[in-house]
Amino acid sequence: MHRVLTITLAAALSSLAFAGVSRAESLGMNTAQGIEQTLRTFHGNEFNVEQVYNWRNRDDETTGPRSAPERSGQAVHGIQASIDANRSLAHRLNNEGVDVRNIVNAEQAADGSLTFYVR
C-alpha cells in the first residue's frame, strides 16, 4: 500500500511540474519563422515595447536591455513585414507611438505576450 501511495504521489507531482509547459507553444516560437507566424496572427493586447542599445557600439548599454539578441537584416525585415500583414497589430503599435520601421526584434513569452524591441 505504501508503494502505491508513493507512485501515485510521484505521478501527481510530475503532472503538476509539466502543467505550465503547455502554455508555451513550442521551443521554436522565437525563431525567425516562428515569430513571423506569431506576428501575422497575433490578436492580443498583451505586448510591451523596449528600447535596445546600439548593437554596433557595445559600450552603449545604457539605452536598453542586453537580453535582446541581434537579428539579421533579413529577419528584421521579416518581422516588420509580418507586423504590416497584421493590420490590427500595426494599428495598436501605431497608437502606442511605435514606428514599425524602428522595430528590430520581437519575442514571445510563454504566456503569449510579446515584447517588441525598437532602436
From TrEMBL:
Tree of life domain: Bacteria
Region (Disordered): 56-77
Signal peptide: 1-19
Swiss-Prot/TrEMBL keywords: Signal
The protein's name in its UniProt record: Uncharacterized protein
